[in-house]
Specification:
alpha+beta
Length: 183
């Protein structure tokens, strides 16, 4: 099945710009609530879900952290997810969401609590673009317990410096990731 063009996805799915970068639309909020361990037992929906789209014109998200577990399920395209688990030094993982399992790509990615993450289209996909409208990645994100903005944070420059304080080449690491901070 050929890729669906970006503008058609935005229109057909009713997507809007996302504060993290890309486009999104909330697709579900479960009515059942559960106490969350992340906000003194406050109630949250059992789960929430969104469509999330990266495109040629909006190819990367910013570094952020959700307190809840997030399940990412691929619909089309490819994107690289960078996960940074705080520690001394921090653990950095990269995963490509895509359909080529033989190349190590994943159709599903689970990001646990307390992990910084960001996503971006692959540079080689952007460079090889014949039709820019076909360079995109559409996923569903399911957040458990459900997403609330107070359970979310963006990485700041101060936080980035702190995160990499024990890294041997700290300046290089900070430089590499600073472009993915929310302006």
């Amino acid at each position: 099945m050929p890729a669906t063009p970006t503008q058609q996805l935005v229109t057909d799915l009713g997507l809007q710009r996302h504060p993290e970068g890309g486009y999104f639309r909330q697709t579900d909020i479960q009515e059942e609530t559960v106490p969350t361990p992340f906000a003194d037992g406050s109630k949250r929906p059992l789960s929430t879900s969104i469509f999330y789209l990266l495109s040629y014109d909006n190819p990367a998200g910013v570094i952020h952290m959700n307190k809840s577990v997030t399940y990412h399920i691929l619909h089309q395209g490819r994107a690289e997810y960078t996960l940074i688990t705080p520690g001394s030094p921090p653990k950095i993982e990269r995963h490509v969401m895509g359909a080529n399992a033989a190349a190590g790509e994943k159709r599903q990615l689970i990001v646990g609590t307390g992990v910084w993450k960001m996503s971006q289209l692959l540079a080689e996909d952007i460079k090889a673009a014949g039709d820019k409208e076909l360079v995109n990645c559409l996923i569903t994100e399911v957040v458990v317990p459900g997403f609330q903005w107070e359970d979310h944070k963006f990485l700041t420059r101060e936080g980035l410096n702190e995160l990499f304080k024990d890294v041997e080449d700290r300046e290089k690491a900070v430089s590499q990731y600073s472009r993915y901070l929310k302006a």
